[in-house]
């Protein structure tokens, strides 16, 4: 190797001599390599030294380059690292700013845990150890449960669906059981009518008639009554004129169909009666051997 000697205070065009550190004893002195040093402010100084090959040396001497390029590269790397660190710091600050504040639930859980630890500490180290073992057991069950669910998702979905269906069906039955009487009353009202009141004459009374106008006037003033349609029930017998000997016992109900249509039953499907018309059950007509006109 060669040593390069540089003198910054050398005069202009001062020669710089590169001498070998050790010369062979029998070597013939070769001409010395001389070059001029011209210091400049810019660009950076670069020197290439290529000595003549020694007669008894088969190797070649490597040249050294002195420049500031490596320092510039190191500066660029440091600048890039600083920028990357600044970006990471800004991202961390943004993530912390977007993180939601601790809710009341998490604060309550922390308070409960703190109180449990204080209680366990007051009751002795054995109680605290038991509590820690219980928490560890719960955590172990949770971990193994999550792992098992992840491995058998289909079976757990089927089981969850079956349990949910059973719970919903049982809840509906339990909630509907107290309302069964109301449902039966509504079904009866669909076929018979709204809540009816039956007034019968008193056997001890001197009069067997009821003033329906007075009853309607009194009932219309009540908020619980939506409407009143009086009916008169008469016991009797019915016979066909073509066969007078064939008579059937029946109950004749006199009513106002116009009021009945607005009050009695939501399924009142009968038309309004005209003069000398009546509704007769089909069983009564079959007994008399008659046929309805409609």
From TrEMBL:
Transmembrane portions of the chain: 156-177
The entry's keywords: Membrane, Transmembrane, Transmembrane helix
Extent of Low complexity compositional bias: 56-67
The keyword Transmembrane helix is assigned to this record: yes
Region annotated Disordered, chain positions: 44-67
PANTHER family: ABC3 TRANSPORTER PERMEASE PROTEIN DOMAIN-CONTAINING PROTEIN, PTHR32522
Identification of the protein by name: Uncharacterized protein
Species of origin: Eutreptiella gymnastica
């Amino acid at each position: 190797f060669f040593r390069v000697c540089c003198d910054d205070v050398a005069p202009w065009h001062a020669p710089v001599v590169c001498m070998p550190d050790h010369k062979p004893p029998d070597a013939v002195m070769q001409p010395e390599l001389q070059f001029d040093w011209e210091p400049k402010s810019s660009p950076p100084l670069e020197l290439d030294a290529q000595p003549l090959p020694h007669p008894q040396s088969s190797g070649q001497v490597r040249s050294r380059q002195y420049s500031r390029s490596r320092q510039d590269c190191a500066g660029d790397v440091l600048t890039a690292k600083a920028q990357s660190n600044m970006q990471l710091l800004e991202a961390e600050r943004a993530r912390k700013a977007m993180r939601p504040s601790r809710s009341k639930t998490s604060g309550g859980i922390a308070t409960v845990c703190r109180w449990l630890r204080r209680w366990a500490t007051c009751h002795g180290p054995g109680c605290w150890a038991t509590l820690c073992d219980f928490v560890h057991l719960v955590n172990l069950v949770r971990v193994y449960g999550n792992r098992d669910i992840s491995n058998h998702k289909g079976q757990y979905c089927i089981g969850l669906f079956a349990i949910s269906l059973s719970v919903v069906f049982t809840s509906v039955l339990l909630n509907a059981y107290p309302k069964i009487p109301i449902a039966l009353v509504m079904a009866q009202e669909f076929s018979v009518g709204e809540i009816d009141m039956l007034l019968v004459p008193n056997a001890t009374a001197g009069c067997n008639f009821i003033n329906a106008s007075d009853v309607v006037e009194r009932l219309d003033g009540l908020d619980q009554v939506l409407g009143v349609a009086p009916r008169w029930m008469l016991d009797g017998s019915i016979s066909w004129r073509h066969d007078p000997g064939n008579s059937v016992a029946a109950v004749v109900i006199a009513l106002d169909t116009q009021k009945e249509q607005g009050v009695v039953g939501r399924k009142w499907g009968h038309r309004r009666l005209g003069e000398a018309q009546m509704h007769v059950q089909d069983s009564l007509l079959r007994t008399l051997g008659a046929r309805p006109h409609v």
